[in-house]
Write a structure and sequence with these properties.
With 334 residues, the chain is of the alpha/beta class. It has 2 domains: 230 residues, TIM Barrel, CATH 3.20.20; 79 residues, no CATH class. The strands form 3 sheets. The protein has an 8-stranded parallel β-barrel, surrounded by 6 helices. Helix 4 links the parallel strand 2 and strand 3. The chain is globular. It starts with a helix and ends in an 11-residue tail after the last helix.
Length: 334
């Protein structure tokens, strides 16, 4: 089964299966990354805007749980320049094997990471952005469809975007956006991808650092209850759309998103502001209903919180079965 699904990207990552945990900020911490990695996938720690000390603790925690490779997700556009420099230096000092970048891509950052022997992955939302990322030195691309939860770079459905980026790329391409199950993985591989990146489905696991409120909302919601909006802007560049579940904030019941300084939560002494990009985490208290409840459009097919390793095994088994059936319908589910 592993041989059937193994792609060159698996060899580059050092994993058994072409299933990658998205580096969800706050949510993808050591417990979830280790669970996905130990199950044969590849996991990214979501370390956007996090301190070097937290990065060190999380990296150490992953390494205590597994000896397999993993990566770190950084987002330069949402990070203070000084902090970003410290984050990159920390990744280099710790010998992190892979770093993923998103939003604004800097050739200098890519070169700095690659010179340190780090594999550089870049998530893109268009074929043009994919070409620019390759020119900057990205070694693997993630084609993110508009169906994705969280911050969304482009406006093109994955079924259209993926073949376009694959056909114009000289590096491996992974598919992201609304991917939940083995049918999606099989369809992505048939479309030329060398793997998939999954966020929301792994958020709904006991190992994820998301608060139980967020997980339960995902189980209860339907795809049509997600919305693209730019109101959750604090900590990110203005005008950056996110896909979230509808709530009082998206319905306009919480006032002007660009003229508010209301505090609605707390995390270890840090204030959580209404209309910030913070999503509910285990470590938080507050008004979770009004926070950014990130969710991709594949939520219709997420009906239980199950261990990440169990979910990954089911995805891989279903994809292998479908790919062995010549007449199987493996079009993407959304």
């Amino acid at each position: 089964m592993s041989a059937l699904l193994r792609t060159p990207a698996c060899n580059m990552f050092g994993c058994e299966h072409p299933v990658v945990l998205a580096g969800m900020g706050g949510v993808a911490r050591s417990e979830l990354v280790a669970a996905v990695t130990q199950a044969g996938g590849f996991g990214f720690l979501g370390m956007v805007r996090e301190s070097p000390s937290l990065i060190r603790r999380e990296v150490d925690a992953v390494r205590r749980r597994t000896s397999k490779p993993f990566g770190i997700n950084l987002i330069p556009a949402a990070t203070d320049v000084g902090l970003l420099d410290q984050q990159i230096l920390t990744c280099i000092e710790l010998g992190v094997p892979v770093v993923a970048l998103f939003w604004d891509l800097s050739r200098d950052i890519v070169r700095r990471l690659r010179d340190a022997g780090i594999l550089v992955v870049c998530q893109v939302g268009s074929a043009k952005e994919g070409e620019l990322a390759q020119r900057a030195g990205a070694q693997i691309l993630i084609a993110q469809g508009v169906e994705a939860g969280g911050h969304v770079r482009g406006m093109t459905p994955l079924r259209l975007l993926l073949p376009e980026i694959v056909s114009s790329s000289d590096v491996p391409v992974l598919a992201a956006g609304g991917i939940v199950d083995g049918r999606d993985l099989a369809a992505a591989l048939r479309s030329g991808a060398q793997g998939v990146v999954i966020g929301t489905a792994f958020l709904a696991s006991p190992e994820s650092f998301a608060h139980d409120y967020h997980k339960q909302r995902i189980l209860q919601a339907k795809a049509e209850e997600t919305v693209l909006t730019d109101i959750f802007h604090i900590n990110w560049p203005i005008g950056a759309p996110v896909r979230v579940l509808q709530n009082s904030a998206t319905r306009g019941e919480r006032g002007n998103p660009f003229a508010s300084d209301q505090i609605i939560g707390e995390e270890e002494g840090r204030a959580i502001f209404l209309f910030s990009t913070d999503s509910p985490l285990r470590s938080m208290t507050g008004d979770f209903e009004g926070m950014a409840l990130y969710a991709g459009q594949g939520i219709d097919r997420i009906d239980a919180v199950i261990p990440a390793g169990e979910r990954l095994a089911a995805i891989v088994a279903e994809a292998a079965r479908l790919l062995q059936e010549p007449n199987a319908n493996v079009t993407m589910s959304i």
